[in-house]
Amino acid sequence: MLATRRRDPLAFLTGLARDYGDVSHFQIGERHVFLLNHPDYIRDALGRHYDNFSKRHGKGTSKHFLGEGLVISEGDYHRSQRRLIQPAFHRREVAGHAALMVDGAARWRERWVEGRHMDVAREMRLLTLEIMSRLMFGIESEGEAEEIGEAVTLIFTQFRPFGMPLARLMGALPHARRVERAKKRLDEIIYRRIAAGRASGRRGDLLSALLELEGEAGPLTDTQVRDEVLTLFLAGHESVANSLMWTWYLLSQHPDVEAKLHAELDAVLGSGLPTAEDVPRLRYAEMVLAESMRLYPPSWALARFVTDDWEVGDYVLPAGSVVIMSQYTMHRDPRYFPDPSRFDPDRWTPEARAARPHFSYFPFGGGPRRCLGEGMAWVECILLLATLAQRWSLRLVAGHPVVTEPVVTLRPKYGIMMRPERREGAQAEARSALGVQAEADAACPHMRAAAARGGA
Questions:
Q1: Which of 177, 182, 234, 283 is the most exposed place for a label (fewest CB within 10 A)?
Q2: In this structure, what is the dihedral angle of CA atoms 246, 249, 255, 261, given to the nearest 10 degrees?
Q3: Taking 90 as the threshold, does the pLDDT of residue 391 lie above it?
Q4: Within 13 Å, how many C-alpha atoms sit on residue 7's CB side?
Q5: pTM
């Protein structure tokens, strides 16, 4: 079991849930670890009883890199920072960024050459890094965005599942020095941008919005701004890039789904680029993305430390133990997703969604710590997929191995090598094949849900 946990944590967690049910237990050294695999238990841990859990224990790897950003901070400080930052992700603010997102994707699709092999994982990371660089800093330089991306990738290697000892051992290896240099370089870029932002005033980017915030103690310090910028930057590009790379892979394996997506794009957009107003009309695109995030959730597991003894089902989880809730495992539970390994966007019709428990699907977490940028992520995913898929289909290179690598996010271990094929015309045929109704007056369900929460 120990070897499986280290070699393939996804199979390990899935096996635990299959063999031992909704609450299962294992140990890492002397630490007791419990896997929760029932929507009600996950709802309670992330929602009603969230204050009985801590996100960190002592000074760990996450705090070293992210400081007191929203992903790491807790208690009153986290609540106050979240209240301060949340308006920057209101749906009106997000809609204002749509043109920048589409512009980035439209320019990116011009780079692709028909038939030329490319790693779509790298392509999506670079594209979303460039967009986030422009959103956060106003950076136009692709070179600087790529430098940031390389530093981010190095830092991600330090985050290991289940607190594996590798991260601690890395301190004695040359790799650790490269990671520290990457962190130093990221800090240099961020602090330089903070100084420039304070000197020049508001420019309409996210950094300027952070610099204008004032809490009870006054404006955010440079360190506080740095922590939030790095947290938002890492989370903001990585989740979107991962969702898109896995979506391209799944589309390449399911031509019927791809054809229906293309038909919707042709019917809704014609030859024009998508806009913020088109997002709620691209309902099938959203269903495709939702199903992709079910099978390959960007965040594949959440961990919490139990601060006080906690009763769940027939068990009492002792203080000091760890609770794991795995999106990857829950999303593939056949009780809620029959034939769970099958890629089927029709699982995301309003009727199908309403028939399932809410926390059978939680790609962005849940409760008071639900991802603040969820609404923006959905908008960006839909707009980027629509813009790129208008022009291109992507085909998996024959013989290329596609293997999951669960680091802090769910990445493809060897990338995803694909070749672009240019789409041509036939928009009228596509409209007829799809039978899309022109009115498309209902907002897509995930955007409606985000709006109802008053968040992004």
A1: 177
A2: 40
A3: yes
A4: 4
A5: 0.87
